[in-house]
UniProtKB/TrEMBL annotation:
Residues shown, of full length: 1 to 226 of 401
Domain ABC transporter as annotated: residue spans: 4-226
UniProt protein name: ABC transporter ATP-binding protein
Any one biological process term the GO annotation gives: carbohydrate transport
GO molecular function, one term: ATP hydrolysis activity
UniProt KW keywords: ATP-binding, Cell membrane, Membrane, Nucleotide-binding, Translocase, Transport
Protein origin, superkingdom: Bacteria
GO cellular component: ATP-binding cassette (ABC) transporter complex, substrate-binding subunit-containing
Length: 226
């Protein structure tokens, strides 16, 4: 079953740049899809249209077979993480991660169980009382991911989430992302320009070039020697 369906999705910015050109792609339930391609090829614009942060110029976005093309971001059951994680500076890790649950009036015990579970997977259990200023960059990015996932959104979007981290940290964070995905199986679209990242993380990889879909397939299908 497909969760996200993009049909003939197109974005032309005022001024005339066509950032996304007739993109048709479906993302299955529980799938980890990586959208890969060089800087400027339209990856962020695709994510922003899925999230409802950017209006489409043509085509449609559906989630669970419902056309959400004109829905505001709030009504889409989506969480998004960027490379510049914006944590609430005055809140602890626990409060940052639990904030979305609090807004939804979730029972305190249930909320703290969810936060603890996600924090455990991300190696944040001993840092729950810290504020963002007292965390490393990698720890902050983990909190941003935890905060996005703690309410178990239908769709998880990540835009180059590791690109501000050093090489060693990027490698270990990949393993953590895989673990999170194994655990929660949330339908994910992950944007990167890094092919190694795409290969290690993706169930399938969609290759974008100048706004157009070039190829889509499993890592094996795309990178196997001919
Ligand atoms: P990527 O995420 O692959 O780096 P983007 O989606 O950010 O690519 O950008 C795709 C193209 O659209 C680029 O040429 C970029 O300059 C252009 N673009 C992105 N956002 C805007 C905007 N708000 N106004 C005009 N052009 C934009
Ligand atoms: P990314 O890291 O996703 O490639 P950019 O640094 O290209 O992001 O863009 C950051 C912001 O600037 C985005 O909101 C994007 O829409 C906007 N933007 C990018 N290119 C242009 C452009 N040519 N004209 C106006 N806004 C742009």
């Amino acid at each position: 079953m497909s969760v996200v369906r993009l049909e003939h999705l197109t974005k032309t910015f005022p001024g005339g740049t066509t950032a996304v050109d007739d993109l048709t792609l479906t993302i299955d339930d529980g799938e980890f899809l990586v959208l890969v391609g060089p800087s400027g090829c339209g990856k962020s614009t695709v994510l922003r249209m899925i999230a409802g942060l950017e209006a489409v110029s043509g085509g449609a976005v559906s989630i669970d077979d419902e056309d959400v093309t004109d829905w505001p971001p709030k009504l889409r059951d989506i969480a998004m993480v960027f490379q510049n994680y914006a944590l609430y500076p005055h809140m602890t890790v626990q409060e940052n991660m639990g904030f979305a649950l609090k807004l939804r009036h979730m029972d305190k015990a249930e909320a703290s169980e969810k936060v603890n579970d996600t924090a455990g997977l991300l190696g944040l259990s001993t840092l729950l009382d810290r504020k963002p200023a007292a965390l490393s960059g990698g720890q902050r990015q983990r909190v941003a991911m935890g905060r996005a996932l703690v309410r178990r959104p239908r769709v998880f979007l990540l835009d180059e989430p590791l690109s501000n981290l050093d090489a060693k940290l990027r490698v270990s964070m990949r393993a953590e992302l895989s673990r999170l995905h194994q655990r929660y199986r949330i339908t994910t679209v992950y944007v990167t320009h890094d092919q190694v990242e795409a290969m290690t993380l993706g169930d399938r990889i969609a290759v974008l070039d100048r706004g157009r879909l070039q190829q889509v397939g499993t890592p094996d299908e795309l990178y196997r020697e001919p």
